[in-house]
Specification:
Layout lengths: L8 E7 L6 H14 L4 E7 L4 H10 L6 E4 L1 H9 L3 E2 L11 H4 L3 E2 L2 E2 L2 E6 L2 E5 H6 L9 H15 L2 E4 L7 H8 L5 H7 L1 H12 L12 H9 L3 E6 L1 H10 L1 H6 E4 L12 E8 L5 H11 L2 H11 L2 E2 L2 H4 L12 H12 L13 H17 L4 H14 L1
Parallel strand pairs: 1-2, 1-3, 9-10
Antiparallel strand pairs: 3-12, 4-12, 5-6, 7-12, 7-13, 8-10, 8-11
Helix pairs in contact: 6-9, 8-18, 17-18
C-alpha cells in the first residue's frame, strides 16, 4: 500500500505510456502546475500486467491516485461497486458519444474516454489483383466467398488471425448481433459455420488457435496470408519490417458481420471515489482530452482521439497519396461513428471470453456438430 501522500500532491496513473507519450503528458502536467502552483503532479506509469492488482489495492485503500488511466471493463466493475466519482453530462459534451456511451453505468458517466483504436483490414493488393478479385471483402461471409479463388490462384491462406485469444472471436460474434446466450442460440450458427469452413478447407491456418499477435503479422509479412485485420500500430510494423509487402498492401474497412458495425478498443480516465483532489482530477482529465492534446497524442502514437473536435481535423479525414497508414487512419476514425452497440457483459468479460475461446477451439479441432457446440456454450454462459 502506498504511504499517505502529501496534501499538495496530485497523483496520476497511466498504463505503459512513458517512453511513448512523455512529451504530451509532461506538457499538460506543466500547464496544470502553472495554473495550480500549490499542486505538485506525480505521474506514475504502470506495466499493463500489474494494472488491475494495483488499481484494486489502491481504490480500496484510503489513499488512491487522483486520476487513473484504465480500460472500460475494469472501470465498469469499479463503478458497479461504488468506487468511482461520476462525471457530469456537461463534462462529456466534447467527446465522441459512441465512445462515451461505452463508459456508462445505469446511464451515468463513470469515466471519460482517453483514446481509442479501431482495427482495419490490410490486404495484399498484388495477390488480390493476380486472382482477379476487384474489391476486398467487407464481411467474414464475403471473405469466405473469395477464399477458394485465392487458394487456387495464389496458393495462399485468405486470412491470418489468432482466433481463440483475448476478445477476437467474442467481438466477431458481436458483429453478428450476438451478445448473450439468447442471441447466441438465435444467431450463432452462421459465424460458427463460416469459421469451420475457413478452418477445415485451409483458408485460415490451423495455427490460428496457437498464434500470438506478432505471429499473425509475420504470416502476412511473409505473404502466407492475403489478408489481416489489424490496428495501425501493426501496419507500422509491416512498413518497418517488410517494406516490399507494405508497398503491395491496401486498406479497407474492418471485416464485420451482418450488423455492418465495427469493434473498438478504448482506454479511459477515471476518478476513484476516495480521491483527494476530485475537482482537480476532473479538470486535469478534461485538459488531457482537449482538442490540442488529443491531436498531439494521436500524431505521436497512431491512436484515435476521443475528442470529437479532434476527430474532425483534416488529419483524420484526408490521406496523403495512397499510403496504407494514411488511409488506415481515415478509415479507422470513420468507423467510430458505426460501432457495435452491444457486447457480452463487462461484469465477467474475461471469463466469458475464455469460455467462448475454448468453445471455438474445441468446435474446430474436434469438428463438433454446430448446434451441439452452440447449445453447450449457451448453457455455460447461462450458468455465469
Amino acid at each position: 500500500m502506498r504511504p499517505k501522500k502529501n496534501e499538495n500532491e496530485f497523483v496520476f496513473w497511466t498504463i505503459q505510456l512513458k517512453g511513448v507519450a512523455d512529451e504530451i503528458i509532461e506538457k499538460n502536467i506543466k500547464a496544470f502546475e502553472d495554473k495550480h502552483p500549490e499542486i505538485k503532479v506525480v505521474w506514475i506509469d504502470i506495466p499493463i500486467a500489474e494494472t488491475q492488482k494495483r488499481i484494486l489495492a489502491s481504490t480500496l485503500s484510503s489513499t488512491p491516485p487522483d486520476l487513473v488511466n484504465l480500460n472500460p471493463e475494469f472501470s465498469y466493475l469499479l463503478a458497479r461497486h461504488g468506487a468511482v466519482e461520476y462525471f457530469k453530462e456537461e463534462d462529456t459534451k466534447n467527446f465522441n458519444q459512441n465512445l462515451q456511451n461505452i463508459l456508462r453505468f445505469e446511464g451515468r458517466a463513470f469515466a471519460v474516454p482517453f483514446y481509442a483504436t479501431s482495427p482495419v483490414t490490410l490486404y495484399n493488393g498484388e495477390i488480390y489483383n493476380k486472382c482477379d478479385i476487384k474489391n476486398p471483402p467487407k464481411t467474414y461471409d464475403e471473405l469466405l466467398l473469395i477464399s477458394e479463388k485465392l487458394k487456387k490462384c495464389a496458393n495462399t491462406e485468405t486470412l491470418s488471425i489468432n482466433l481463440n485469444e483475448g476478445e477476437v472471436f467474442p467481438k466477431i460474434l458481436n458483429k453478428y448481433g450476438i451478445y448473450d446466450p439468447k442471441s447466441l442460440k438465435e444467431k450463432g450458427k452462421k459465424p460458427y459455420e463460416v469459421f469451420k469452413t475457413l478452418y477445415s478447407k485451409g483458408f485460415i491456418s490451423k495455427e490460428c488457435l496457437t498464434m500470438n499477435h506478432r505471429e499473425v503479422i509475420e504470416k502476412y509479412m511473409a505473404e502466407n496470408a492475403a489478408t489481416v485485420v489489424v490496428g495501425t500500430n501493426f501496419i507500422k510494423s509491416v512498413q518497418e519490417n517488410a517494406l516490399n509487402v507494405y508497398s503491395k498492401s491496401a486498406v479497407s474497412e474492418q471485416l464485420t458481420g451482418i450488423s455492418g458495425k465495427y469493434d473498438v478498443s478504448l482506454m479511459n480516465l477515471l476518478i476513484p471515489k476516495k480521491a483527494k483532489h476530485k475537482e482537480l482530477a476532473k479538470e486535469f482529465a478534461l485538459m488531457l482530452t482537449d482538442k490540442e492534446s488529443q491531436l498531439a497524442l494521436a500524431r505521436k502514437t497512431n491512436v484515435l482521439p476521443a475528442n470529437k473536435f479532434a476527430l474532425e481535423d483534416d488529419y483524420f479525414k484526408t490521406a496523403k497519396n495512397n499510403d496504407p497508414l494514411e488511409i488506415a487512419r481515415t478509415i479507422s476514425a470513420k468507423q467510430l461513428n458505426n460501432l457495435i452497440e452491444k457486447e457480452f457483459s463487462p461484469l465477467n468479460k474475461k471469463e466469458i471470453n475464455d469460455m467462448i475461446n475454448k468453445s471455438i477451439e474445441s468446435y474446430l479441432i474436434l469438428n463438433e456438430n454446430t448446434d451441439s457446440a452452440i447449445d453447450k456454450i449457451k448453457k455455460e454462459l447461462e450458468e455465469i
